[in-house]
Structure formats: structure tokens, C-alpha cells
Specification:
With 96 residues, the protein is of the alpha+beta class. The protein has a domain at 26-88: Nucleotidyltransferase, domain 5. Helix content is 23%, strand content 28%. It has helices spanning 14-22, 64-76; strands at 31-37, 41-47, 55-61, 83-88. Strand 1 and strand 2 form a beta hairpin. The chain is globular.
């Protein structure tokens, strides 16, 4: 397996740099949020560090206001910890 360090990897954000510098640890993030993007709505699943089963949290409308509320609400859950968001948008991509 290849070793990574900050000198060998191009990073896009300060949080990505922190992961590279510290080495990836599954407990680095307090909460993992997966978003399944659709034109009208966004499906939400949340997982805690470790190998536990992800929890489906339902759907929200695909609007900037709904996404902002979701981010605010989920950011309060891990008591100040870092939340990792990722989304799937299909082959054509999707702005979020």
C-alpha cells in the first residue's frame, strides 16, 4: 500500500490537508453524512465512526434553504466534532 503525506498529495481544503497530515483514521470525523441527490429531493443517511449500521434519516427538498437547515442540524449532533458530507449525483453531476 502506498504511503501518503502532505508533500505528495494535492489537497483541496484545509480539512483534507488535516486528514493527509494526520493520516486517515476512521474516528477522525464524528459523523458521516451521505446524500443521495435527485432533482426534487435529497435522501439522507448518517453513520457514526466504526462499523455500525448507517441510519436512514429521510428526505429533504432539494433547495438551498433545506440543505442549509440540514447542515446546521447535523453539525450540532456530534458535540463540536467534524462532520463529513459526501453526495452522489449520477453521471451528469449535480450542484449542491
Amino acid at each position: 500500500m502506498k504511503e501518503f503525506n502532505a508533500n505528495d498529495v494535492r489537497v483541496e481544503s484545509a480539512s483534507a490537508l488535516k486528514v493527509v497530515q494526520d493520516g486517515f483514521r476512521s474516528d477522525f470525523y464524528s459523523l458521516y453524512v451521505g446524500l443521495d441527490m435527485h432533482k426534487e429531493n435529497i435522501g439522507i443517511a448518517v453513520a457514526r465512526p466504526g462499523r455500525g449500521e448507517p441510519e436512514y434519516r429521510g428526505e429533504i427538498g432539494n433547495t438551498p434553504m433545506a440543505v442549509e437547515k440540514l447542515i446546521q442540524r447535523l453539525s450540532e449532533e456530534p458535540d463540536g466534532g467534524i462532520v463529513q458530507f459526501c453526495y452522489e449525483a449520477g453521471p451528469c453531476g449535480c450542484g449542491l
